[in-house]
């Protein structure tokens, strides 16, 4: 389960950020929205030094903060080389102030130390202090106690989120497809296969135990847009409605995801389930979907990765969402849903903030889900 905690100042936030991202951010700017004394959305931006690129990225990132109704922004600059963040940092700070956002904390992190820059006139020297150790930061202590350690880089995180394809199994699945003789399944059998993949128990039988023919059925089923949409809708309550798919497809998707405790725990006007209530189960299901993607030939993996991204986005994990969508587009640059979701993610749109679909939003007995 992901611990939740709040840092007390910018130096503690600098220690917390790698734990929240899952990796050390490398040369970058990290912006955190302030709502009073509470932190909100966090953005990580690669460092740039071209003046026009600095201005454009600064305007874009601050516009997202304004849309989030932030009252201020904390600016953390992670540097490898002294001064490497200065042009971008200045552009972001100027854009924030021009938008009416306070910048109460503005620090540079380098070589295990934290610099609070002095005044622009140079008469006030920067304040320098060592970053606190993780175990000394109350906001980070829950991560340390849980055994969570950030990876060294985003590249390492990508390798863990999207592991290399199992070429032997993928070739076996491809041979089944080429033969034109996959295992025929009826609706109930398809739901049972997906129920196996979406089993939220850590003790569940590995996805890799399924024979190649059944993996081919699973991967191929997501090429059916109605089935894909129905499955994504039930896995992320409130993301979008099941009303746009046939009734029988919606019921089938609900059956397939019935073991996921967040899927069928609300009715009609009940409050939507919060992903944080089911962190452990969500991680298990997400991992099993990744395992499925690893066993399939590449043409079948993008939509599985989009499904992983969809689930991560609903759970509030923008980093994992972006990694999966980027990988899906590497494999299939024409994947329209991956492209759309990545564009929405880049603009800071939250899935639950999308406009609701028109029409009634019925309860469980008629398949519907609030959008």
UniProtKB/TrEMBL annotation:
InterPro entries: DUF4192. It comes from the Bacteria. This is DUF4192 domain-containing protein. It comes from Janibacter indicus.
């Amino acid at each position: 389960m992901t611990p939740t905690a709040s840092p007390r100042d910018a130096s503690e936030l600098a220690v917390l950020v790698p734990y929240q991202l899952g990796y050390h951010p490398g040369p970058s700017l990290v912006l955190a929205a302030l709502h009073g004394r509470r932190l909100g959305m966090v953005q990580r931006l690669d460092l740039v030094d071209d003046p026009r690129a600095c201005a454009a990225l600064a305007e874009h990132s601050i516009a997202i903060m304004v849309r989030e109704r932030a009252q201020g922004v904390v600016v953390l600059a992670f540097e490898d080389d002294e001064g490497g963040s200065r042009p971008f940092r200045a552009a972001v700070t100027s854009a924030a102030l021009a938008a009416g956002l306070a910048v109460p904390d503005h620090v540079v992190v380098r070589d295990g130390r934290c610099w609070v820059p002095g005044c622009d006139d140079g008469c006030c020297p920067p304040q320098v202090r060592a970053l606190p150790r993780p175990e000394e930061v109350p906001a980070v202590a829950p991560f340390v106690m849980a055994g969570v350690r950030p990876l060294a880089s985003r590249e390492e995180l990508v390798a863990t989120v999207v592991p290399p394809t199992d070429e032997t199994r993928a070739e076996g699945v491809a041979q089944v497809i080429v033969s034109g003789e996959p295992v025929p399944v009826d609706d109930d059998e398809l739901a049972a296969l997906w129920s196996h993949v979406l089993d939220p128990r850590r003790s569940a039988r590995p996805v890799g135990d399924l024979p190649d023919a059944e993996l081919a059925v699973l991967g191929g089923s997501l090429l059916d847009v109605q089935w894909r949409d129905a499955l994504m809708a039930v896995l992320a309550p409130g993301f979008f409605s099941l009303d746009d798919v046939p009734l029988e497809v919606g019921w089938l998707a609900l059956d397939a995801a019935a073991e996921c405790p967040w899927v069928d725990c609300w009715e009609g006007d009940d409050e939507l389930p919060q992903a944080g209530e089911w962190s452990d189960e969500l991680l298990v299901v997400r991992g099993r979907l990744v395992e499925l993607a690893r066993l399939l030939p590449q043409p079948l993996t993008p939509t599985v990765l989009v499904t992983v991204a969809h689930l991560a986005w609903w759970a509030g994990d923008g980093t994992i969402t972006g990694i999966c969508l980027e990988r899906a587009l590497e494999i299939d640059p024409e994947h329209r849903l991956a492209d759309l979701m990545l564009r929405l993610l880049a603009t800071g749109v939250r899935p639950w903030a999308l406009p609701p679909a028109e029409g009634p939003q019925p309860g469980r007995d008629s398949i519907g889900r609030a959008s």
